[in-house]
Design goal:
With 264 residues, the chain is α+β, with helices and mostly antiparallel strands. It is built from 8 helices and 9 strands.
Amino acid sequence: MINHARTLLLNESGATRPAPDFFMEEYVDSKYGQLSLPAYLTQARMPLFGAGADIAYKNYVMRLVMTLLHSTEFVSYVYALDSRVTYLNRSSIVGTPNKLAATPTNGLALTGSAEVIGIPDSIPQRAYWEWDVEVLSGGPTTYQVRVSRRQPYASSVFTVGFADGHSDLVPLPGQAQLFFRFKSTMSVGETWVASASVLPVVNVADLMAACEKSADAGQLFGNTDPFKVFGELWYKHAYLTYRLSGYLLAVAYRMEEVRVNAAG
């Protein structure tokens, strides 16, 4: 299948993926169903995402690890699963800016404008944030505004002043340095979605250390190819990119065994 190795390592149902323009989204076959993994493989994948990571964070990590896998000659094992990949021509994650947006969600909001401003914090296992913003009551200079973070859900009501064509800064729960601001006008009943795509901080050395704690040599690697080759990379190579390639390829190929066996 297209993006075969990436799809396996991500292991998310293709039928429930977000839109193609979502943060670092790549093609996942709609027929791919999330695999039920044995305990050792669940443990082996844990360093990638941890527990509770959001979709955007997982996409970011997959961009990172697929770039790493394509950096050595052992990428041949990625292509051996399926040569069709869609992610090679993407811009570098290093140059990807944080994206802040305010999107009107009803007609009343269209009469004015708004913005999300500030410097977002990088939060572990989180790369995408959304809040619903609604003007509940008030006017013309003071309003009650409800802000509801979508995931994990949290809701607060703020008293917001409006003067000289803009409102006070409205806090966005979960991001201490991000704020929503109404501009031009404010109307009772108007609704917005505030969003932030925030590049997380992922330390490859920390990823390596986590993999060292999670690897079960007796099950992940082995004495037969290609697992013997992967084990040689992981245990004996001097360079981090090669070591991690061995680990990631072993996980992907063990997952492919699970997929093939499940298909019968």
